[in-house]
Design goal:
- The chain is α+β, with helices and mostly antiparallel strands and 165 residues long.
- It has helices at 18-23, 32-45, 56-59, 94-109, 147-152, and strands spanning 50-54, 75-80, 115-120, 128-129.
- A 4-stranded mixed sheet has the order 3-2-1-4.
- Helix 2 (32-45) packs antiparallel against helix 4 (94-109).
- It is globular and about 35 Å long.
């Protein structure tokens, strides 16, 4: 049950923290079930895509600031869709805007930290893939069966496969 990173830093700012990798959920959540419950609506709306979490809640430390995950932190949630057009970033379509609002409201209602969703054509390195998400190969954007580590690059979480829900 990771609440925050220990004094030991991972190999780099883009590596999934070993405690998070073992637990299967980001820092700040009491269980994988709790994490899955809050991200379930997003996963159900994106059954053919990959839902993941990245940033300090996964690595333990802010990429730019180097600050440990804590009260000041938020949750960076992503959706990877190889068919998405344009650069990675915030919601652009009506569906994406609605999904982002839904996840923000769910996290707020649960008394959790702020959460936002960004959209990608790939799964970035250091992302913790939501355990039941369809996986994408980072190079080709094609479905892959090699586990989350293969989908998210070296150092990624090892949970993967199955169906959304």
């Amino acid at each position: 049950m990771p609440k925050g990173p220990a004094q030991v830093k991972p190999g780099s700012a883009t590596d999934v923290h070993p405690v998070v990798e073992e637990a299967g959920h980001p820092f700040g959540f009491t269980s994988e079930d709790r994490y899955r419950a809050l991200t379930r609506p997003l996963a159900q709306a994106n059954r053919d895509k990959v839902v993941f979490t990245r940033g300090s809640s996964v690595t333990g430390y802010g990429f730019n600031s180097g600050q440990r995950f804590g009260e000041h932190s938020d949750y960076d949630i992503g959706v990877a869709n190889p068919k998405r057009k344009g650069a990675p970033g915030f919601a652009r379509t009506k569906e994406e805007v609605a999904e982002n609002q839904q996840i923000e409201q769910a996290f707020r209602a649960a008394g959790n930290k702020k959460a936002s969703v960004k959209y990608f054509t790939y799964v970035p390195q250091g992302a913790l893939v939501r355990r039941h998400s369809t996986e994408l190969s980072p190079a080709s954007g094609a479905a892959a069966g090699g586990g989350a580590a293969a989908a998210a690059g070296a150092g990624a979480g090892k949970k993967g496969g199955g169906s959304n829900g």
